[in-house]
Every structure is written in structure tokens, then in C-alpha cells.
Amino acid sequence: MRIALDGMGGDFAPVETVKGAVEAVKAYGVEVTITGPEEIIRAELEKYTYDKSKIDILDAREVISLNESPVMAIRRKKDSSLRRAMDLVKEGKAQAVVSAGSTGALLAGGLLVIGRVKGVDRAALAALMPGKNGHFMIIDLGANAEVKPQNLVEFAKMGTVYFQAIQGVESPQVGLVNIGAEEEKGNELTKAAYQLLKEESGIRFIGNVEPREVSDGDVEILVCDGFTGNVILKMYEGVVKNLMAMIKEAMMSTTRGKLGGLLVKPSLKAFMKNHDYKEEGGACLLGVDGIVVKAHGTSDARAFMNAIRQGKRFHESGYLEKFKEKMEAGNFPVA
Amino acid sequence: MRIALDGMGGDFAPVETVKGAVEAVKAYGVEVTITGPEEIIRAELEKYTYDKSKIDILDAREVISLNESPVMAIRRKKDSSLRRAMDLVKEGKAQAVVSAGSTGALLAGGLLVIGRVKGVDRAALAALMPGKNGHFMIIDLGANAEVKPQNLVEFAKMGTVYFQAIQGVESPQVGLVNIGAEEEKGNELTKAAYQLLKEESGIRFIGNVEPREVSDGDVEILVCDGFTGNVILKMYEGVVKNLMAMIKEAMMSTTRGKLGGLLVKPSLKAFMKNHDYKEEGGACLLGVDGIVVKAHGTSDARAFMNAIRQGKRFHESGYLEKFKEKMEAGNFPVA
């Protein structure tokens, strides 16, 4: 399979994008087309030895910046690295696009260039995150600041097929992120969505999940509007970051703590690696008629490798075909 | 000053409520009226030696459970321990009410028994939380699942007076919790609220704050709807709890880690104590014409002590008078 990699997306492009592509080709046997100014990408590629038949460059002279209107940028900058990568998937020349560029532009590209799956009203961003007892997926992480109750049912379906196809979980649980466990709790959106989710036969809805339980990882799929999902994602990031820094500071404040800190360091490092959601390969845009992987803006080569692996797993799992089939049949039977 | 303590509120009432009252009387010199079935409260009180002139009992035969409608319960159960405590404040016989009972009933009691400050449309729950660089306050933590943009301006005013009167910060910063730093980001509520907050002269609005930065503690007051605030509070709790458990597990998985764990234990314990938001004495209901402190449902005697201390600080700071004065003058000058 071939990955279309936006060579200029992300804070450390093109150095890390190209390095990640080279390593992914070696590790996963994929083929990669890197989009971007040919001479720049080529200069980076020349630093490495690799199977030249596996990586090619698609020249793209424009770059989409983080400050411009995503929709306008995708429409007008037809020669941008992101747009070119999207076009490759649209034209069937690549099977997945990977980009660490602006989330807004990626979303606009997914909707305007690739298009939604028939029957899907809203595409959504989702990511697999590490929890205490297992991985969980929040849908939507921020593609839609406002949604209708029905959209949360769509998100539940997308997540269900994701876990079935990619994680091998036949009957994943779906929870509604809410500020109380009882059915009648929450705001207008969650109250209405609860009723729709309860009536939907093709998903395994287990009721409300309070944010206190989200990171337990007991419930695989957590649906919410994109505002709430983004708040959850960013709170998770912020609290983990600050807590680790504060714990380190607390340990370093005493001699005894310093010594202990040296001893626990390898365990903590291993822990941080196991619980780094960047290891999961970024977020994916679900509901569009192609595989779109959003790598973190600060991605290094390793993160790009993981994002490419994620695109590969998506493709090989047959996720998209399974999702489309079920959407067309209007049928989401749970095993 | 006298505290009205709901003797039957919370998971560990009346054992821990009464113990907390006895210790608070010794530590802070306050007077406490404990509401609840007289013989039950008296039996608890008899376990301790204390200045008998400082604690009395107000007999209340009913208890509000967590399952009943808060509004109905407050209206009908006039002889409940919570309602009796609220009445004491309403009648001026106590200067603050403290309860670990149902948040809904506390809110209903605050609104229906004590009433809002003139000019306030919505009362809100707020709590001081420990951040990396300082304490921050989120308003609203869950009193209002839906709000209007104007309500976030009210919350900003309540928080501003809180920091001025109680924390001694003359010109506290106000941030709008949002999923992007730029003015145009967010949902309909945050976009409209941004414009109102920007135009409000009596507060120091610094723009959007992303949830990633909330726990930094650099911005004192964070305003949001109650759904979002509750998500933030519960994510914070959940991630801290799970992360500490996972770190412990990671350390215990190796012999080296176990030894290090023993050495860092005192530092971590001190850290957890310093960063336990329960130490702050619970949440407070702002915007009502009386001091209402909500202790955590799982409060022990120490947490009740802290909640009583919080009520005392509120009263002595003159918060309520200052807030009412400014609301009446329609004037919130920032120093």
C-alpha cells in the first residue's frame, strides 16, 4: 500500500517527516509519496539510504499555514503539500493520507477533497488513548464544536466499527460523556442523545460515563460534541504534563527524594512511554471516504512512523469498506 | 461567627460531620449549630470534650437523599437537616451554611431559601483548585448545564470579587475556557461570551485559555458553562487518581523501583496533600445572598474542618457585602 505524506505539515517538517517516512518504509514495508517542494524533500531524502523504489516525491509548491482559513486554503491552494496528498487518496493513487499540519485544514481537506461516506452527516476526529485498564477512544475530539444529538449516534457507529475492524473487539462498549450517571442528567444535547443511543440497536450503549471515569479505560468508545472532546483531550494532556513536573519537583526537594528519584526513573520513563498517546499514531478523521491520519503538530520522526503505521493498519483492517457496507445496509449488528 | 452545619449531609455523616465541627470549634474559634435528629447528633457530640457554649443542635427530623428531586425536597422537607441549616442563614442566625449533601439540593436551597443577590441571573458553583504555579478557580463547576453568554460575565465578576476579597489579589486575571487561543475559536457560547467579556470594563479579561493550560494555575479565574466546568473538574480528579495509581504500579514492577518508591514516598505524600483540592474546603455557591459551602460527598472530619474554615474566611473577608455593593453600583473597577 501507499501512504500520501504531507511533507511540509508539522512543526519539524520537512526534516522529521522525511526521516519518519524513511524509517516507516524500512519498518512496515509501505510505499510513501511525500508531497512538498521537490528540491527540499529530495535534499532531506539524500541524507538516508533506503529502497528508492519505495519512496517518491510529488512536487507541491504551496504551504498551508496555521493562520489562514482552512476552507479557503484547501480550495485555493491546489498546489499545497496537504491538498496534493489529499488528491492522491481521492484519485486512488494512495490509500491513506498522513499530515501533521493544521487540524482545520486537514478536516476541510477530508470533507472537501475526499468527501464524506454516504449517509454520514458529520465527520469526526478520534484518537485511541491510553487508560488505566485499557485504551479508549473519544469521538469527537474537536472537528465539530456544535453537534446535533443524532451526530453522537453516528460517532458511536464509527467507533464501533473501528474497534471491531482495527482492535478486534467484537462488541465494544459505547458511553456518552456526561456530568452525571443518571439518564436525566446533563445538558439538552446529552439528554436527547441518551434517548437516541439507547434506541440504537447496532451499538452496545452502556449509558453515561462521567469524566472521572474516562481515563479508567473500561469503556472503549466515548462519544461527545467536539468542544467537550477537545476539553477532555487537552485536560488530559495538561494534567499529565503538570503532574509529572510537580512530582519531579516534589521528589527533588529532599535528598532522600532525589536518591529515590534516580531509582524510580527507569520505571517512570517506561511508564511515560507506555502512556504517551503520541505512540498511538495520532488522531484519525472518521466518516470521510478515505483514510486520513492527523499526526500531532510537534511530531518527530518516531511519531510520523507511528502515524504511517496507523494508516497502514486502517487500510489493512478493511475499516472503511466495513463501515461503508454497514452504513449502506443501515445495519449495525453487534455480535 | 456561627456556622450552620448540615449534620446529616455526606457519606460519613453524622460521625465525621460532628467530629469536624468539634475540631473546627477548637481550631478556628467559630460557633457551630449542627442540624439533624437531636438524639443522634447528641450521641456523637458526647464522644468529645469541647466548649459546650460553642456548639448547639437544631433538631431536624428529615433527611434529603441523593435520589430525590432537589427542588421538591427543599420545598417539601422543611424539617430536613439541609433546609434547617439554610433557614438559619436566611434568618441571620448563622453566617454560613456548610453541607456535604447533594449538590442539587444545596443549589436548590441556595436559590429557593436564601435567594440570589439582586442583579444576578444565575448562581454558580466555584472552587479553588491547586495548579502548578498557583491556585485557580473554575466558575461554573456544574450548577448550570446550559448558560447564556451574559452569565459568563456574571461568573467573571463573582470570581473577581472572590480573589480580591478572599485571596488578596487586587486585579485577578479572567480567562474563558475555550478550545483554541484565538478570538474566533469555539462554539456559539464561547464566541458570544468572548465579545461580552472583552467589553466588560470591571474585570481583567485576558482571552481564551485552553484546557491544556488550566492546571498551570497562571490564570486565576476560568469561566465556562457548568457542563464544561464539571467535565474539567472530573477529568482533573480522574487523571490525577489514575496517574498516581499507574505510577505506583510502574514503580512496584521492579525491585529497583520498589526501593526508590520507598524513598520517594514521603515527598509524594506531601505533594498529594498540597495538591488535594479537598484541602481547600470544598466548593462555594456564588451569586446567592448568603455564604454556602459545599463539602465533598466523601468528606471526613478534616474536610469538614476545612469547609468550616472556608465559610469563616468568606464571612470575615466581607466578600458578600463587597459583591453586593459592586452589583448595586453596576461597577467593577479593577485596581
TrEMBL record, chains A, B:
<dbReference type="GO" id="GO:0008654">
    <property type="term" value="P:phospholipid biosynthetic process"/>
</dbReference>
<dbReference type="Pfam" id="PF02504">
    <property type="entry name" value="FA_synthesis"/>
</dbReference>
<keyword id="KW-0594">Phospholipid biosynthesis</keyword>
<keyword id="KW-0012">Acyltransferase</keyword>
<keyword id="KW-0443">Lipid metabolism</keyword>
<comment type="function">
    <text>Catalyzes the reversible formation of acyl-phosphate (acyl-PO(4)) from acyl-[acyl-carrier-protein] (acyl-ACP). This enzyme utilizes acyl-ACP as fatty acyl donor, but not acyl-CoA.</text>
</comment>
<keyword id="KW-1208">Phospholipid metabolism</keyword>
<comment type="similarity">
    <text>Belongs to the PlsX family.</text>
</comment>
<protein>
    <recommendedName>
        <fullName>Phosphate acyltransferase</fullName>
        <ecNumber>2.3.1.274</ecNumber>
    </recommendedName>
</protein>
<keyword id="KW-0444">Lipid biosynthesis</keyword>
<dbReference type="GO" id="GO:0043811">
    <property type="term" value="F:phosphate:acyl-[acyl carrier protein] acyltransferase activity"/>
</dbReference>
<dbReference type="GO" id="GO:0006633">
    <property type="term" value="P:fatty acid biosynthetic process"/>
</dbReference>
<comment type="subunit">
    <text>Homodimer. Probably interacts with PlsY.</text>
</comment>
<dbReference type="InterPro" id="IPR012281">
    <property type="entry name" value="Phospholipid_synth_PlsX-like"/>
</dbReference>
<comment type="pathway">
    <text>Lipid metabolism; phospholipid metabolism.</text>
</comment>
<keyword id="KW-0963">Cytoplasm</keyword>
<dbReference type="InterPro" id="IPR003664">
    <property type="entry name" value="FA_synthesis"/>
</dbReference>
<keyword id="KW-0808">Transferase</keyword>
<dbReference type="GO" id="GO:0005737">
    <property type="term" value="C:cytoplasm"/>
</dbReference>
